[in-house]
Amino acid sequence: MRILLIDDDKDLCHLTKTTLTKHGYEVATFHEAEAGIKYARNSKPNLILMDVMLPGLSGAEAVKALKADVLLRTVPVVFLTALVAGEEKDLGDTGINVSGAQYQTIGKPYEIEKLLEVVKKLAK
Predict the structure, then answer these.
(1) Is 73 exposed, middle or buried (0-12, 13-18, 19+ CB in 10 A)?
(2) What is the pTM of this model?
(3) What superfamily does domain 2-123 belong to in CATH?
(4) Mean pLDDT across 95-117
């Protein structure tokens, strides 16, 4: 399974990529949405994990661009964000709304076990 991770936190990207790779996933990381979108169009990942607050295009703007592409509109997207905290930290399937669609959201910092659970669920 190919996962695209877009997050401007380089340390978090490295840790997440290392962990997911150890669990058998192929992970490509990008720190800006534009580069991630270009990769997605060329490689069609099976899952996209993306921060909401990114330099340049925001995560929401990036999702709109990805979903406008007929080859990518069915690829699941999970938002990773520090914009939620406390009991709302894991918004699950009721996460962030972009253009009328709900996207699963995991609050940062996240427990790697929770991320793995979500990835495994979406890998099916």
Answers:
(1) exposed
(2) 0.86
(3) Response regulator (3.40.50.2300)
(4) 76
